[in-house]
Amino acid sequence: MTTNNITSKPRKKILIFDDNLEILQLCTEILEDLGCEVKTSPTTTGTELQVTEFLPDLIFMDNWLPDISGIEATRLIKANADLKHIPVVYFSANSNISQLADEAGADDFIAKPFDIDVFEEMVQKYVGN
């Protein structure tokens, strides 16, 4: 008798900060189709606590958010010794997104509206196998 030892890999965890509920829903569907576990937040209230509790493999951060801006939230994450290793991808409709991402200390950026293939490629770049 043979036994199949199938070990399932832990799902990659992705946290998305965006106040646009349609974007959150779209991104969640795309990421779940890729086999990721997704948590979303429409606000940056308690950014570090939210990140610490979920410990994602990747974070998508919008620029315009209630409470504190995406720049401030990203800086908090990157200043925290326990969280700074987590890649943050800045995503926004701002025309100067590369400058904003640089100012925030983000690892990368993607402009909105985004092409789904480009979004998936960004995810694979940071959490792909």
List keywords for this structure.
40% helix, 129 residues, single chain, globular, alpha/beta, Rossmann fold, five-stranded parallel beta sheet
Ends distance: 32 Å
Give the neighbour order of strands across the main sheet.
Answer: 2-1-3-4-5
The largest sheet, given as strand count, sense and whether it forms a barrel, is:
5 strands, parallel
Helicity, as a percent range: 25-40%
The average pLDDT score comes to: 92
Number of strands: 5
Please name the CATH topology. Answer: Rossmann fold
Number of domains: 1
What is the gyration radius calculated from CA atoms?
A: 15 Å
The H-level CATH homologous superfamily, spelled out, is: Response regulator
β-strand percent reads: 15-25%
CATH architecture, by name, is 3-Layer(aba) Sandwich
Short structural summary:
The chain is of the alpha/beta class. It has one domain (13-127): Response regulator (Rossmann fold).
